[in-house]
Amino acid sequence: MIDLYYAPTANGHKVTLFLEEANLDYRIIRVDISKGDQFRPDFLAISPNNKIPAIVDNAPADGGRPLSLFESGEILLYLAEKTGKLLSGELRERHHTLQWLFWQSSGLGPMLGQNHHFNAFAPQLIPYAIERYQVETQRLYGVMNRRLEKSPWLGGDHFSIADIACWPWINTHERHRIDLATYPAVNNWFERIRTRPATERALQKAQQI
Questions:
Q1: Which residues pair with 57 in a beta bridge?
Q2: C-alpha to C-alpha distance for 205 and 167, rounded to whole angstroms
């Protein structure tokens, strides 16, 4: 059983998407970030960066005590290695998958998050910041589109944790003032993931929280 410390955000959705795809047993523990639950000492003991998601694996492969992990990219990598799913064992595809996973963690997620912040939540209008992050958002969508013009999935021939990491952020494209029709390869990829049964189940879980 996996305990998932969760809020229905893009980073939270990454883990439910994996867990549903891999058909793992898990229990959602809601972290109400609007009320400051992420700063509670019991949560900080699991996620010292006071961010969701975090997990506790109550049955790690070494048979030892429960293992807690934070950072969504590491959680996806850990679960892929634990289950042997959604990460190729073939050298090239494995590392292509990992490079796109790290691309999401270091670029796509942070930049799109800043775009959303300065467009929707900043206490004052800062045109420079809005323009800066909009231009970078468009650049990143372009990078992704060029990859998907050449490959059915980000890592190669198989759906993987790289696709799972990116999809929840692209699912909020309207917040980034992005028309997916401008990026047809991304749009095609997005729709193929949106209609997967595991994606539908994961999003239903989010609505129930």
A1: 2, 67
A2: 16
Cβ atoms within 10 Å of 193's Cβ, excluding its own: 19
Q: Give the pLDDT band (50/70/90) at residue 108.
A: very high
Q: What angle in degrees, to the nearest 10, is found between the helix axes of 72-83 and 91-103? A: 160
Query: At what angle are helices 72-83 and 161-170 packed, to 10 degrees?
Result: 140
Question: How many angstroms separate the CA atoms of 3 and 84, rounded?
Answer: 19
Q: Tokens 């490959």 belong to which residue?
A: 151
Residue 134 structure tokens: 């909009």
pLDDT tens per residue across span 73-86: 999 999 999 999 99
Look up the pTM and report it: 0.96
Distance CA 161, CA 198 (A): 13
Q: Which of 122, 110, 195, 193 is nearest to 159 (CA)?
A: 193
Q: For residue 59, give the DSSP letter.
A: S
Residue 207, pLDDT > 90, answer no
CA 146 from centroid of its chain's CA atoms = 20
